[in-house]
Predict the 3D structure of the following.
Amino acid sequence: MDTSNTHKRTYIVVGIVFVLLVVVALVMFRAPARTAAASAKAQELTAAFELAGLNAPSEQQIVGTLGEDGGVVCKTDFGNLIESNLNLLLTNGAAQVGARGIIIDAKVLTGEAIILSVYCPERLPEYKEYVDQLKTADLIKE
Amino acid sequence: METTDGSAVAKPAIAKQVVKAVKKPQFITWTALAFMTVSSVASLRAAPTMGIYGLSAVFLYIVPAIIFLLPTSLVAAELASGYDGGIYNWVTRGISAPLGFLAVWCQFAMTIFYYPSLLSFVASTFAYVINPDLANSGLYTAIMIIGLYWIGVWVSSRGMEGLAGLASSGLFIGTLIPGAFLVILGIVYLAQGNPSAAPMDVAHILPPWAGIASLVLIVNNFLSYSGMEMNAVHVSDLRNPSKEFPRSMFLAVGLVLVIFILPALAISWVVPAESMSLTAGLMQAFQGFFAQFGIEFLTPVLALMIISASLAGMLTWLAGPSKGLLLIGRQEGYLPPSLQKLNKQGIQQNILVAQGVVTTIIALLYAFVPNVSSVYWIFSVMTTQVYLIMYLLMFVAAIQLRRKEPNHPRGYKAPALVFLCILGLLASAAAFAIGFIPPSQFGGGSPWTYVGVVGSGVIFIGLLIPLLFYYFRKPSWKTTDAEPKE
């Protein structure tokens, strides 16, 4: 069989699978609705950020990611694999093989705690239990 | 497409070296090799992680680029422009065959724990857009890791030409196009008069000094450029390696810097560092970015693009170190004949399958055994340490080769090679030493326990296993046509 034809077939199959997955993802993805309740929650979060002396995202960003109920942040159970993924995220700037742990800035962890306290406070204790055991430093300039 | 076919007349020696079974050698262009190198090293995955440092992200990428990327790239360019085979042949000729095997083993071993962590990232990214609950499902994670790995093996086993094409496509679709989109949106955001979320003044160029934590951050970032030399093993797949490899390397260096720095900056302009949700994953930062422009519905498209770039990177890692391992295994008889077998495309399929079995076991342990997944990050630390041993050997070999074979034809001669090698050696040694400092994940545990755990892992993965291969080698396992070319 001609090699370039084989490769063309591989590209076509990969391309079709990619497009199908994009369609599936677009259909299944639920972006938070931009409602008045979501805006009210966003204002509550902004106030909480400011109270903690942190830089709050714009209302558009908050509504578009957290909606009324906290979106993915509140839907994700803090299980073993989530903790593992989190551990793998607290890394240097490598995108492929060189990724390894660093000492993270505490502010990055504080922001999420505030998000949880506003949108799904029942999840805060398990998050705090995890972050309290992490070593942190002050690496982001105000 | 960045690939071309070549005739057996144009390059008979290469066809003979790589595999007898290949009827027609598949050549790749220098741009395709550059894209493969970029796929192996860079993607948008790191942009939110580094975006939190604002303008300091530039410093955190540029300083390691000067100290580590520059020596690695220039030295690899010189070595590949003069010698076939990549790291194993450089170290074999420059130092010794056993250390050549150790070098390529260290490169190969790096990937053992890399695939499950990369593919679990892919799994959680896909879960983010279809059903976030899946991210915590062991069954889903195991199916994704194992399924995607074996699909990768199947694609890799179909030959270099196709792999180079997919890696290039993955880079364009998964990194360059969305990266350019993020940067343009970031510029639009600033042009609309919005203040940058992270301060962009001179006072914020340098990160604050936080003692050992700053050192860990800066030095660990050297490893962001790990893998620049890896695709040199495919140098004989170029039509004119001595001229084309350096060109390919320089293009890759430029693209890697652009991909790492600009999207991270764009995110820091729009999304405040403190608003990152780590448990939701990196996609949350991208969704916040898009939400600023009212286009958060595009998040799943970006997720699939990032996934395609990650898988393209995985393909290059499947094809590279295993090929180096095969070449020295055949040349020195370090690998049993069953692992030396090639398929009709000339690909080391059995090595990939053997690695697949190990990856499958690791994936199952990762997905279903909490004690494994909770400490999985330590395995990544161990293998990055092992990988640094390879860099130490590469720089020593480069100095030795310049000294022992000064007149050997090289398509490119790195300026001040000895200085570059010493700089690279010091950078690699510093990164190795910093690897023993406990990161955030280790919490308040004893630093000496951490040193003991990481040190034991390095000895086991980086020394004991290759020693066993060396001990059990057999002269009868040597393959006569496996001599490296100059």
Q: What stands out?
A: The longest strand of chain A covers residues 104-105. Residues 32-137 of chain A form one domain. Chain A touches chain B through 80 residues (CB under 8 Å). DSSP finds seven helices and two strands in chain A.
